[in-house]
Amino acid sequence: MARPSPYPPELRERAVRMVTEIRPNYPTEWAAMKAVAAKLGIGAAETVSGAGR
């Protein structure tokens, strides 16, 4: 079982929205996730990729 996220649900929801909004500005979804993670102070883009789960 995965451990609980240290990030509140609101932050994770915001990250998902941001990736969706900025995705057209980046060559890949991964690049968009990395940019969002950096903007929100999230340590790893992998965290953003799992945000919608």
Summary keywords:
53 residues, mainly alpha, 0% strand, globular
Secondary-structure topology with pairs:
Layout: H1 9-22, H2 29-40, H3 45-49
Helix pairs in contact: 1-2
Strand-and-helix sequence, N→C? Answer: HHH
Work out the helicity level.
55-70%
- By DSSP (H or I, 4+ residues per run), the number of helices equals 3
Low-confidence stretches: none
**Structural shape:** globular
Would you write up a description of this structure?
- It comes from Actinocorallia libanotica.
- InterPro entries: WH-like_DNA-bd_sf.
- This is Transposase.
- With 53 residues, the protein is mostly helical.
- It is 58% helix and 0% strand.
- The protein has a domain at 9-42.
- It contains 3 helices and no strands.
- Helix 1 packs across helix 2.
- The chain is globular and about 35 Å long.
- The model has no long low-confidence stretch (mean pLDDT 85).
